[in-house]
Amino acid sequence: ASHGVLVHLRFDSHSQVIGAFLENPRMTQGLLLPLVASESAAPEILRLISENRRWGVLYPVRQGLVRNPRTPPVIAMALLSRLKKLDRQAVARDRRLSPALRQKARRSLGETSRDRP
Predict the structure, then answer these.
(1) CB 46 within 8 A of CB 72
(2) How much is the pTM?
(3) In angstroms, rounded to a whole number, what is the distance separating the alpha carbons of residues 28 and 6?
(4) Which one of 28, 52, 69, 91 is CB 3.0 to 4.6 Å from 105, fit for a cystine?
């Protein structure tokens, strides 16, 4: 598919379309990151991205998945430990994210709930 078609398809809500999108050789990280960051992306789509061998291993993708409130909690929790300290600090402060994820981020930084500002 051409670049223009990929740009259009990246926000499709059908998991089969997104699966093909992720496997397209013309797909780039630049095309994928807006989808990863989109709070309108379906949790199933974010799960597909996290499990993709080509894209799920890239740091910016993992970071975007953890920072997206629509990412299934079990996935965000698993990816959290793979983030750099600065990014885990941002997760700990991000009120859009689940309290459980923020608390896990604080614990990974050696903070307790009493240490919160």
Answers:
(1) yes
(2) 0.85
(3) 10
(4) 91
Q: What whole-number distance in Å separates Cα of residue 35 and Cα of residue 13? A: 11
| Spatial contact of 47 and 72, defined as CB atoms under 8 Å apart | yes
Token pair for residue 11?
Answer: 């926000």
Choose among 63, 70, 66: nearest CA to 101. 66
Q: Position of tokens 């402060």?
A: 93
Helices (H), the chain: 3-9, 15-23, 29-37, 43-51, 59-67, 73-80, 85-93, 99-108
d(CA 91, CA 109): 11
**Inter-residue contact 101 to 80 (CB < 8 Å):** yes
Q: Which residues of 66-85 are buried (b: 16+ CB within 10 A; e: fewer)?
A: bbbebbeeebbbebbeebee
For 58-115, write each residue's pLDDT tens digit: 999 999 999 999 999 999 999 999 999 999 999 999 999 999 999 999 999 997 555 4
**pLDDT at residue number 16:** 85
- The Cα 14–Cα 16 span in angstroms is 5
